[in-house]
Amino acid sequence: MTKAADIMHPGAQWVPENETVLRAAQLMRELGVGALPVSDANERLCGIVTDRDIVIGCIAESADPSGTPVGALTKGTPRWIPADADVRDVLREMEEHKIRRLPVIDQNKRLVGMISEADLAHHLSDDLLGEFVEKVYAQ
């Protein structure tokens, strides 16, 4: 049985909620990613910030990226999956919430990886991938 840990991109890094949007954007550039999990003061997942969030929620609003905390851009309850979850649970979570990136958390509630659409494309059968795309992108 394939687990979330088997398909995730390991070594994901998060950004503290009080870090600036500018630093988050720099970190995305350095890591070559389009999203970063956001942690609270206790290093617990409290959100996710995407490159789109930065553009729409900060730049387009004429906010100062060097003075805006990343936490100001996070919305709602972040979704995540345990590292030992079955891949079908991963798909269900992403499909139900129409999300394209999913943090993977260990038993101590610490970030251990991220699952993206690219990870799914590399590890799923064409049939499962097709079902995922249809459910996530369906209007």
Give the arrangement of secondary structure elements.
Elements: H1 4-7, E1 9-10, E2 15-16, H2 21-31, E3 35-39, E4 45-50, H3 51-59, E5 81-82, H4 87-96, E6 101-105, E7 111-116, H5 117-123, H6 126-137
Parallel strand pairs: 2-3, 5-6
Antiparallel strand pairs: 1-7, 3-4, 6-7
Helix pairs in contact: 4-6
Task: Describe the protein's architecture and organization.
Residues 8-66, 73-131 form the CBS domain. Keywords: CBS domain. The protein has 139 residues and is an alpha/beta fold. It has one domain (4-137): CBS-domain (Roll). Helices cover 38% and strands 20% of the residues. The protein is globular and about 45 Å long.
Q: What is the general shape?
A: globular
Give Rg in angstroms.
15 Å
Write the CATH architecture name: Roll
Total beta-strand segments: 7
SS element count, helices = 6
CATH class: Alpha Beta
Summarize the structure.
By secondary structure, this protein is an alpha/beta fold.
